[in-house]
Amino acid sequence: MDAKPACGPERDPEFFEEVGRLFAKYPEAAGRYAVKCRRLELEILRIDFQKKIGVTSVEDGRIVTEFVDRDTVDDPSELTRMCCEWPDDDDGLCNWICPK
């Protein structure tokens, strides 16, 4: 059986070629970013990022992420300052808050 990979260069080679060119063009910025497959969040957990936001913490050497209702975030101004995942759309919503 020839199952297509869920994500990655084998699934979307042209996209990854463009990303590679972009990273090569901006090597300093490229070191701060990576392309991540969102299958776990979107297809397995079925997270609706319009309603939920990932909140990440570091606990005992582990990275722990919880998805909470956006309206429960204590200080919405923190969303912009601490955002570590931006979606490819124009709603302006942060998808993931990084630890301080």
State the order of secondary-structure elements, H for helix, E for strand: HHHEEHEE
Biggest sheet, in brief? 4 strands, mixed
Rg, nearest Å: 16 Å
End-to-end separation in angstroms reads 45 Å
Overall 3D shape:
globular
Tell me the strand order in the biggest sheet: 2-1-4-3
Helix % is 25-40%
Number of strands: 4
> Which class do the helix and strand fractions yield?
alpha+beta
Low-pLDDT stretches are none
Q: Mean pLDDT, nearest integer?
A: 85
Compute the number of helices.
4
Percent in strands:
15-25%
Write the layout of secondary structure elements.
Layout: H1 13-25, H2 27-30, H3 39-44, E1 52-59, E2 62-69, H4 77-81, E3 83-85, E4 96-97
Parallel strand pairs: 1-4
Antiparallel strand pairs: 1-2, 3-4
What does this structure look like?
- By secondary structure, this protein is α+β, with helices and mostly antiparallel strands.
- The chain is 28% helix and 21% strand.
- The protein contains four helices and four strands; from the N terminus they run H-H-H-E-E-H-E-E.
- It has helices at residues 13-25, 27-30, 39-44, 77-81; strands at residues 52-59, 62-69, 83-85, 96-97.
- A four-stranded mixed β-sheet has the order 2-1-4-3.
- The mean pLDDT is 85.
